[in-house]
Specification:
This protein is about 25% helix and about 25% strand. The chain is an alpha/beta fold. It is elongated and about 100 Å long.
Amino acid sequence: MKPNFITEIIDEHNETGRFNSRVHTRFPPEPNGYLHIGHAKAIYLNYSIAQQYNGKFNLRFDDTNPCKEEQEYVDSIIEDVKWLGAKFEDRLFYASDYFEQMYEYAITLIKKGKAYVCDLDAEKLRELRGTLTAPGKNSPYRTRSVEENLDLFTRMRNGEFPDGAKTLRAKIDMAHPNLNLRDPIMYRILHSSHHRTKDKWCIYPTYDWAHGLEDSLEKITHSICTLEFENHRPLYDWFLDELGIFHPQQIEFARLNVTYTVLSKRKLLELVQGKFVDGWDDPRMPTVAGLRRRGYPREALHNFCEEIGAAKFNSTIDVGVLEEAVRGVLNKTAERVMAVLKPLKITITNYPDGKSEELEAVNNPEDPSMGLRKIYFSRELYIEQDDFRENPPKEFFRLSVGKEVRLRYAYFIKCEEVVKDENGNIVELKCSYDPKTRGGNAPDGRKVKATIHWVSAAHCFTAQINLYDRLFNSPDPDKVEPGKDFKSNLNPDSLGIITAAKLEPSLKNANPSQRFQFERLGYFCLDSKSTGPKLIFNRISTLRDSWAKVEQKLKKK
């Protein structure tokens, strides 16, 4: 990882001997949704820093809200963190591991006169909290004795009171300029089963109470958080100082914002529940599961995170930076193959019927070590419909009547005749080939201006192609007209489905971990959910940033 303000702080700590030159980071997700690209940045940052300083990295779930948490989310997060390459070894922890210790810490604060049981409901709590310009007012229950608070808190744990009847609050300062320190809630009553502790607890710690304690108990040295937690840091410090326990250093960095993308878990959940997408791992989603299913290599996510770095101030990254990182990796690593998405049949009239021959094709010109593969040539072929024009414009150099083109790795062909159906639609081209041009070169030195891809009709197979594109039409999906929400910016063309593409036979044995460049078309991979006789391939990316031209046109308007 390149130097940044976080590594500068750690370097200073190591020079002064703070934490005994030890570096221990963590990633603390809440299991209330799938991880997204913003979380991938946080994971990369925390894990890379631990690696850089020969330190340790923990994965810890902040599972303090049973109403929104599910084991499905826990399992998906573990899978995503492992896929991203962040090794937490045996250091997988949960906030629920510490519920008993947190309860004892709360007892400690009650005994010190620093916490009390409050009977105010949520509405009254908000009313008395005050504003940024006006101080709050003390709860009428703030003066309860230590003995009464201990008794009530014990009874809260024992389940004597209904949900919302009471809370445990820290006794700090209702006039404090930082609203987070105006007697914040530490515990609330929730008669809800927890995915790990089941029905053992009916009181649950708030995030603000639990978060700093978890870091302390795990002896985390550098608690790296996003900027929205900056105003919460003084509260975490207050809890740790009052308890007199190990005190990590919290450091805040700017969260990731990306154009044409929403990274709010609430909004992503809304897309899933409203069936605007096909689940959390829909390849259009910015979730790690979605990006993985789409075919994004993790190296591209690492390169993207390294490129954008860690900043102190919020900004928005153009999604084109991420897409270019993907293309940068795939260009070097993806095997080249040939596929025809919109087939047009060609018959080579002077090629023997029933004959076929093997030709050699380069797997990746960027990496000769990837070698060659066999492709098949026969009398009947398929090319792309867009590679033929019956009445071509002047600048069209691909196939037309009377013109020659080169078939990639094969021969020169010339179109001799166009066959149409009863409706006037072109259904077949009759062409001749020059047998002296095997390999794509003419011994007489003549040149052609276009090389097109193709597949042999006798050897190819039919597959479905999902043409995924950006999920939103607007760079800022939250920027909407009055009365509308972010979903009004959904791109109706974010998924195009081709049901009868023709693919070269080598792709029959593809697996979801492989990425391919369909020559001239883009990067593709086998969908991890592809089952049955017809395989399904997903478009990972176009070969170039096709959206740049769209955006330029919009700006001109």
